[in-house]
Amino acid sequence: MHHFAVNRQGQLCCEEYPLREIARRVGTPAYVYSRATLEHHYRVFDEAFAGIPHIVCFSMKANSNGSVVRTFTRMGSGVDIVSGGELARALAAGAPPGKIVYSGVGKKAAEIEEALRRGILMFNVESREELERIDAIARRMRRRAPISIRVNPDVDPKTHPYISTGLKRNKFGINLRQAMRDYEWAAGRRNIEVVGVDCHIGSQLTDLSPFLDAAGRVRQLVDRLLSRGMPVRYVDIGGGLGIRYNDELPPQPKEYANAVASAFRGLDVTLVLEPGRVLVGNAGVLVTEVLYTKKIQSPSGKGKHHFFIVDAAMNDLARPSLYGSWHAILPVGRAPAGRVTADVVGPICESGDFLAKDRRLPPFKAGDLLAVMSAGAYGFSMSSNYNSRPRAAEVMVSGDRCEVVRERETLRDVIRGERAASFLQGPAKGK
Ligand code: LLP
């Protein structure tokens, strides 16, 4: 469910605000988020776990915009972070430290220190060496570091290989047997407080069975830990619930919640959830303008193949280039009649720079505006300055109100911090 729909004048709107109007005001490319959709998604997800002690920790890597994060923290959400940068931004967006969980295989000493100083809920520890480092830092700071071990349950999430994280060949987590040894080691350390168990197997899962397999294995570990007198207060089962981009039929949050809850029935624990995509994916679109069109002889030999060259590119939305992912392309205004087969491509100098391939689309013309749908997750947060392109503006709409929540970068932003090397000054050879 989302609040992007065509109004009576044939204009695609975000809530009550026409996207064309946003493009006119802030230019393109621009990410546009719907507050009502964000709130609806959070509510549905949170309510799916009603009656079960739980904390929803929005996985802010999916969308790190301060206003997006704040939308959730105002509703009681915690945050799943993976860096010191995300810690700072989560706190700035009003996240209570006691609802922040910190995952990731490469936490640096300064990042661990800062998280300890702030008093986060727990570190999701991904290796023995990390555990030892957290222990040493906590000892130096005279603190007790709350930890859970991220276990790698070795289940296949049946999603894109780049976003599968719970297979034993992945870099994530600690295998179940080793985890038991690490828990025993941790339990003997004065500066470590074992508080939970964590697991995250992958992203954009459209089937419940991998979640159930993983939860079953985590449950066995929790039972063993409890039988050895280890306190397990939190069971964090990560994120990963998929969304509909095209014709996927992911489980509803309620089905997901029931499945997860059933695996931990009878335990006196608080579930920690780390949803990212399911909260923000369908709450954002990328608005872009057609700059040029081109036609070639179709590679199949039949008819013409079109290119719609737009002003957004793989630096703005990397997902199609990186994972071959499919995003719907909708006209922002009234579309010209008919259909052609086309690629929607950006200005970047790589053939891998595309937003859509081999689509049946209206015969768009230069100046037309397009909306790349379901771009709220891993869209702006993965964007870059490749080809020296300033990053897009971000806008949030609430009803008939619309505000810029991140300004478009300027060229000055793009070169900020760059210095001319002194040894390259003076006359060049051959001049
Ligand atoms: N927790 C942990 C430890 C994670 O690594 C992730 C995502 C999440 C939670 C949130 O997962 P979600 O609910 O969003 O599936 N860039 C890729 C997705 C990468 C996911 C990385 N980890 C994409 O655009 O599809």
Polypeptide structure, described:
With 431 residues, the chain is of the alpha/beta class. The chain has two domains: 4-32 and 282-415, Lyase, Ornithine Decarboxylase, Chain A, domain 1 (Beta Barrel), CATH 2.40.37.10; 35-278, TIM Barrel (Alpha-Beta Barrel). 27% of the residues lie in helices and 25% in strands. The strands form three sheets. Strands 4, 14, 15, 16, 17, 18, 19, 20 and 21 form a nine-stranded mixed beta sheet that branches. Strand 11, helix 8 (209-227) and strand 12 form a beta-alpha-beta unit. Helix 8 runs parallel beside helix 9 (253-263). The longest helix has 19 residues, at 209-227. It is globular and about 70 Å long. Residues 59, 61-62, 80, 103, 163, 200, 203-204, 238-241, 274-278, 319, 323, 377-378, 382 line the site of ligand LLP.
What's the Cα radius of gyration? 24 Å
Report how far the terminal alpha carbons are from each other.
64 Å
SS strand fraction:
25-35%
Might you state the CATH topology name of the largest domain? TIM Barrel
CATH superfamily of the largest domain: Alanine racemase
Q: DSSP helix count?
A: 12
The tally of structural domains comes to 2
